Structures are given as structure tokens and as C-alpha cells.
Amino acid sequence: MSGLTNQEIKKIVNRYIGVFDGYLSNFSYRTHADFYPEYCDLDVDPNQYEGTTRQRFITILENSPPHIQAKIVRGVLQRFPLDDESKKPSSRTKELYDELLSVVLRLEGTSLSIPQNEQITNKEKEIFISYAWGGESEEFVNKLDAVFQTKGITITRDKEDLGFKGRIKPFMERIGRGKAIIVIVSEKYLKSENCMYELVQISKNGQFYDRIFPIVLNDTNIYKSAQRIKYIQYWEEQIEELDKAMKTVNSANLQGFREDIDLYTEIRATIADLTNILRDMNTLSPSIHTESNFEVLFNAIKSKVTDLPTDSNTCRLTVQKPASSSADVTLQQFIDNQLNSNEQLAFFIKQIGLANPRQDYTKAQFEAYCNIWKSLQALRLVGSELWDKASKDNLVKFANQLRDTTQLVYENSIFFEEADYSQLKSLLEKFKYFQIGKDKLIRIRSTEDIERQEKLFYSIRINKMIAEQIARNEHHKTEYENILDVIRSSFNSKLSRVA
Fold first, then answer.
1. What's the distance, CA 45 to chain centroid?
2. Exposed e or buried b for every residue in 184-196, given b needs 16+ CB within 10 A?
3. Could you report the per-residue pLDDT of 216-253, keeping only the tens digit for each?
4. pLDDT tens, 488-498?
5. Do residues 358 and 383 both lie within one domain?
6. Helix H segments across 192-315?
7. Hey, which of 18, 303, 389, 442 has its CA 20 to 30 A from 169?
8. What is the CATH number of the domain that holds 202?
9. Could you list the residue range(s) of the whole structural domain that residue 120 is in?
10. How many domains is the chain partitioned into structurally?
11. Which residues 6+ apart lie within 8 Å of 8 measured at CB?
12. DSSP-derived secondary structure letter, 183
């Protein structure tokens, strides 16, 4: 991979940072030394080199390998933002910023590709990110931020957008009101009063599930109740520690401390519910996000913040009638993927009775709903086969389809409203009960075959057990068919054009 060219280094130094009286912008020798660990996460000592700050900066940049150069240039873009008017050269433009960002991605080995139909150009839309500074969390956020910038999304971050001497609390409250907030959950996050204050603010402003896009880092234990209790214990300990300390001084000298203990108490009161919601959301692992270049997260946020379509191929739904007449298209063809994508959508729209599809949803969103519906229908069909004949082969088919459908629901949970997702989970739970009931019925009948030959006495008792199990199975079958009707109505309402 090639490093920076001489021309690129000159652009960075002269045109973007700016040179004044031979020195690099407003860098002093001290602030230049602080720049590398603070903005680049690098252990570089410019005092080992001779010359002005400009000469030292160029020497370091020229002698660094590409991946280090990438960190330095990224640090420059953060240290000298476009809205910083202090010693800002007129050549520091948005076009040059984008060009240097492209250079960074080249140095990092990431190709910059911004399809026009993937850009979110409405600057009034803000995407916030809530995370704990430093370590793995910040490193992950930096990667995410870089990828989103290549796709036309600017993420609002406290470290970059708050500004020197900016008031932290109002900014955190602004995050809490955001329409879309990426939450990077880590061990440090759940024990940080600032991070938890942001999470509480998001919750207080309502639609918590709908507005957050969480990613849970590997050091975080929220999926087992015993582990989540440790976070509650932590905040109880913080309350107790601060309360004891406050009792050692005169109450007249506690301005600001009472607010802290109130915050700790509020965190303690809400952390159980909030982490319970987070653990129930399919957030995908950090590695899946990075390996997919954050594609799922990007699409979900794009659909959340983009009110107007930007391209007919990606944002407006174009439905093509199936080549066969609708009467000829069967549910089995739909399930077996024997139709093209537009025909699939047309059949799905007919299935849920959608008369006027909304135009502000992307085709990908419609396809997410369509794929879920298709999988649910496939599960219903194999369930009917299992109902008609409780055999081991049919039970295996049902179990496999249940596994596939459950996975699909979890993978696409980010596209759905909380009520829809709750209904889907309830439906899958009914399917699971149905599977258990059928398995039990098969085992009872196997017992019947063996024992009929041994003792006729058992036949009356076993027949009663079979009748009871059939009744329970029928109840579960009816329940999940009823829920399927509810889902159909919910999908219709969600995907209909708003009058």
C-alpha cells in the first residue's frame, strides 16, 4: 500500500492546517507534542526532531508507514475541524476535507465509495453517538465514524462537536432528544455517570427502543441476570459511598453533590429496565458490524432519518406484477423463491392486503418485512404438515424452519417497531410450544405401540394422554394462527402510505 505523496503532504500542511510565520497553524511546541497521543493515539515525541513545528510535523509524517500516516491525518481532521476559525486558511474547505478523508481510507486499506443513492444529504438530520471515551470503545467508534462519513453521514460526537469550554450537560441532554442515537455499550459505559446520564435522558424522552441503535462490546455482561445485577450493585455502592462522604461535611457546602446522588439514584432505579431492553435487542456482534462495513446499522439509521426518497431504485418501491396471473402464483412458489424480487414483493403486498404502499420506505425495508412474512408462512405450512402427521421427519422439518425463522427475526429486528417485534417473538414462542407438544405426542404414541403389546390396561390411560396433548397442540396452533393475523394487520398498517 503506498504512503502519502509529497503533493498530499503539502496539501495537508499548507492548504488544510495552514502555515503562519513558518509555524504550523496555532501549534506550539507543547500542543504539537500533545497532538499525537490525544488525537492520533500515538506515542510520538516531536521534540526528538529539529526545526519548527512545521518542519517536525513534515519529518514525522514523511518517515511514518501508511497506517501511522492514516492516524496522523485523521488526527489532523479532528484537531482542525472545518468550523474552527482560529488561524484557518481559506483553502480549508469541505472539498479538501473529503479529499483528505479519502486519502486516510486509502492508507487504511479501505476503498472510498459513495454511491449517490446511499448518501443522506439532509443536513438537518442529526445522528448522535453515546459511548465511553478511550480504549476499545473509542477505537470502535472511530472506525464506525469513518465508514459513515464515506456514506455521507456525519455523526455528532461530544469529543468533536462540543468544543472547548462547551457545556457538557446540555450537550448530553441534546443527545437524549436525538431522533437516532448509536449507543456503544461497554463495561465502562455502564459504570460511567456521564454515559448513564445520556442513556437515562434517551429513555426519558420516550420511544427508547425506536430511537436507539445499540452495539454491545464483548466486555459487557448484560445477557445473564446474575451479571446484570452486578451493575445494580455497583450503583448502590456509589450511592452509599457518596452518601457517607456527604455526611462528613456541612450541608451548606454540598452544592452540586446532591444532584450527583440524585443522578446515581435515578441510574440505580432505571438500569435494570434499560439493560433488560438492550439484552433483548439483536445488536449483532462488533465483529459482524466491522466485517460488514456497518452495512446493517447504516441501512437502519438511513431509514430512520431519511424522510424523503433520494433515488427511485433504492427509496421508492416499484412493484412489478408476477409474470403469471396472480391466481397462478402459489404460496409455495413464494416460499420456495421461485419468483423474482419484484414479484416476491407483489405477492407479499397482496398477501397482507396492502392497497397503497408508502413511498418513504426503502426497498430494503419492504424486503425485510417480505422475508419475515415469507419465513413465517413457511413455518405455518410445515406446522400444518406436522399437525396433519406427527412424524419424526415432519418434526425435524418444523424444528429446522423454526430455527431459521427465529434467526431471521433476530437479524432483522432493527427494522421493526417494538410492538411488531414483541408480536413476532410471541409468535415464535407459540411455535416452540407447538413443537414441544408434537414431540411429546410422538413419544406418547411410541410408548403406546410398545405397551399395547405388553399390557392392554395402559391403552386407556395413553389414549387419554394423547387426547389431552392433541387438545393442547390445537390450542397452540390456533394461537399462533391468530397472532399471524395480528402481524398481517400490523404490517399492513406500517407499510401503508400515510394519508
1. 38
2. bbbbbbbbbebbb
3. 888 888 888 888 889 989 999 998 898 888 888 877 76
4. 887 888 777 65
5. yes
6. 193-204, 208-211, 225-246, 257-279, 286-291, 295-305
7. 303
8. 3.40.50
9. 116-289
10. 3
11. 103
12. E
